[in-house]
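Narrative of accomplishments. A recurring question from our advisory board has been how the design workflow behaves on a single, concrete structure rather than in aggregate. To address it, we present the structure tokens for one chain from the evaluation set, followed by the sequence designed for it. No filtering or post-editing was applied between the two.
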């Protein structure tokens, strides 16, 4: 089951004297997180925050309604902020990282199970999936020739791996 509220960043400090906070975004960019008008302080969506945000370098600066002093803002340091997945429209073929984690990685042709998708690494040119099997980690480039299908509903990703990725010859 997909989580409704997704952890999207951490409050890492204050900004200025009027209660703004600095958020380290766990999204594609600070601008992505800055687009939200509502954030949450818990994964059940019970603590709702009305916000005005803007990207600033590699962080998101955020003014939270009711947080008007540096002292108020400082009390939030270290807290995780969440977004509601219903507030986002993802483009076709784009997925939340949290929905990818745990997917079973299978061979497109043979059905062989390579392991579970345990991390998504950002490398610049393309993402890289970390697939873990029996404690061993394999790195798979996220390119069309290798990642053939992603099905988060049924819990798998189909691969046509490049030679050598899953060859365990030591």
């Amino acid at each position: 089951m997909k989580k409704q509220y997704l952890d999207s960043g951490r409050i890492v400090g204050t900004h200025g004297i009027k209660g703004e906070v600095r958020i380290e975004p766990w999204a594609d960019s600070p601008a992505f997180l800055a687009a939200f008008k509502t954030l949450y302080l818990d994964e059940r969506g019970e603590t709702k925050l009305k916000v005005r945000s803007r990207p600033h370098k590699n962080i998101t600066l955020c003014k939270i309604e009711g947080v008007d002093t540096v002292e108020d803002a400082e009390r939030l340091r270290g807290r995780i902020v969440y977004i509601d997945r219903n507030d986002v429209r993802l483009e076709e073929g784009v997925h939340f990282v949290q929905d990818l984690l745990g997917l079973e990685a299978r061979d497109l042709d043979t059905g062989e199970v390579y392991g579970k998708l345990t991390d998504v690494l950002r490398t610049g040119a393309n993402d890289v999936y970390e697939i873990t099997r029996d404690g061993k980690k394999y790195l798979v480039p996220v390119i069309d020739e290798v990642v053939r299908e992603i099905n988060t509903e049924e819990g798998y990703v189909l691969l046509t791996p490049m030679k050598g990725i899953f060859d365990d010859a030591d």
